[in-house]
Design a protein that fits this description.
The protein is α+β, with helices and mostly antiparallel strands. A hairpin with a 6-residue loop joins strand 4 and strand 5. Helix 1 crosses helix 9. The longest helix is centred in the C-terminal third of the chain and has 25 residues. The radius of gyration is 25 Å and the shape is globular. InterPro entries: Endonuclease_MobA/VirD2. This is Conjugal transfer protein MobB.
Length: 432
């Protein structure tokens, strides 16, 4: 069983997402705790929300008081409604939320029948419930529930402690070729990706990009790959390195074989349904693009947004570090395609501009009333949008840090390095 724990500030969004499943007969409310009852047993979003309002009133400091958890048994598991309720109650009790108000929703819109639990992490006295080591505790609870209810164990990739430690490439540190090699030679052992675009999205995490090159050799058309190091703005910051320098597995032919195998494997991967549900959940609870990315990042999922020069989104990629798979949004579902996000965030941007203009009109004395404050970025991949990078963030499970931005000039550094090499050659010549 896989558990996903999400947090947000939009309780109406979380309730609407789940209640919509009920109204479309793709879900039902299995049980509630500390929720005001209705005469006919039916609920509206507004009725459910009223049970949480007292908790939010006594604590307005907690940034994300909404708790939204999904419990996902294996598709082969046959779990009754009564068992789902017991598992949810035991899970909440052991995680520290046993006394909280919550609603247990069952979703049946995908092959993997699963449950969602909507609650709050603020108790009745206004205190935020501690969440120390919550992910680890959640995993332990899931393993215990698997044994107790005879469920199929989650197929988690075990970490042995002897894995390759990946580091982001720092083009200023020298020996760029070896830095790229340490990532490219080992990355295929740990991650699955079904296209060159998905591969590049993952490589970008390590300040690397791969570019396809075409040419003619002995009268025959040849295709290949070259690799570059990237700077903080996602621009090429090194000379190209032929894929053959990094071994057969880094070349285009071998990668295309890997793409085909991964594509076939990912079709039946149960992670797909869990990831899709998690992203949809964030879409309904996030208040803007930055919040959406942050919510997913907190669950070990990075979002890569690709925009053209006009700012239109033409690609959405999600990297799930828990399952170590890379997915294009459209491969997860039509509702997660680039066009959907482009329309959604463009509408938000228009709304923000209108609100800023309204504020400016109401407050003519303010010199900053006609500007929109830029959203704080949280994604490790924001430099793909040609923006300044976010602060350094630890990549959980990989042991790598994005390099800090420094004020050096790359061309100047290359020139300095070449001068050092010339001096060394002259010294060697004198010794001879």
């Amino acid at each position: 069983m896989i558990a996903k724990i999400g947090r947000g500030a939009n309780m109406m969004g979380a309730l609407s997402y789940n209640q919509l499943k009920v109204e479309k007969e793709n879900g039902q409310i299995l049980a509630t705790q500390r929720i005001m009852e209705t005469l006919d047993g039916r609920y509206t979003v507004a009725q459910l929300h009223r049970s949480f309002e007292p908790y939010f009133m006594v604590n307005k400091r907690t940034e994300k008081p909404v708790l939204h958890i999904s419990l996902n048994p294996d598709p082969a598991d046959k779990v009754s409604d009564a068992q789902f309720v017991k598992m949810a109650q035991e899970y909440m009790e052991r995680l520290g939320y046993g006394e909280q108000p919550y609603i247990i929703f069952k979703h049946t819109d995908i092959e993997r029948t699963h449950i969602h639990i909507v609650s709050t992490c603020v108790d009745r006295y206004g205190k935020k419930i501690p969440d120390n080591h919550e992910k680890l505790r959640s995993m332990e609870i899931c393993r215990a529930l698997e044994q107790k209810y005879n469920l199929v164990p989650a197929t988690e990739k075990q970490r042995t402690g002897n894995e390759q430690v990946f580091r982001a490439v720092d083009y200023r540190a020298g020996d760029v070729k070896s830095q790229i090699a340490s990532v490219v030679r080992h990355l295929p052992k740990y991650y699955g990706y079904a296209s060159l675009g998905a591969y590049n999205a993952l490589l970008s995490l390590f300040n690397i990009t791969a570019e396809e090159v075409k040419g003619e050799l002995h009268g025959q058309q040849k295709n290949g790959l070259v690799y570059f190091a990237l700077n903080e703005q996602g621009e090429k910051a090194s000379n190209p390195f032929k894929a053959s320098l990094f071994g057969k597995q880094a070349g285009l032919d071998e990668l295309q074989n890997q793409f085909a195998k991964a594509k076939e494997k990912m079709k039946a991967d149960p992670v797909r349904a869990v990831l899709k549900s998690t992203i949809e959940m964030a879409m309904h609870t996030a208040i803007n693009e930055a919040d959406f990315k942050k919510q997913l990042l907190e669950q070990g999922i990075n979002t890569v947004v690709r925009r053209n020069d006009e700012g239109r989104i033409y690609g959405m990629t999600f990297i799930d570090h828990e399952s170590r798979t890379v997915w294009n949004g459209s491969a997860l579902g039509k509702n997660l395609s680039a066009n959907v996000f482009n329309d959604w965030w463009n509408e938000q941007a228009i709304g923000q501009r209108q609100e800023a203009e309204k504020t400016s009109a109401q407050n003519q004395s303010s010199t900053t009333g006609n500007t929109v404050e830029k959203e704080e970025t949280h994604s490790l991949f924001d430099f793909l949008n040609k923006e300044q990078p976010a602060d350094d963030l630890l990549i959980d499970g990989l042991g790598g840090l994005l390099p800090e931005a420094q004020g050096e000039d790359y061309e100047e550094q290359v020139f300095a390095n070449s001068m050092k090499k010339k001096k060394k050659r002259k010294r060697h010549g004198r010794q001879q």
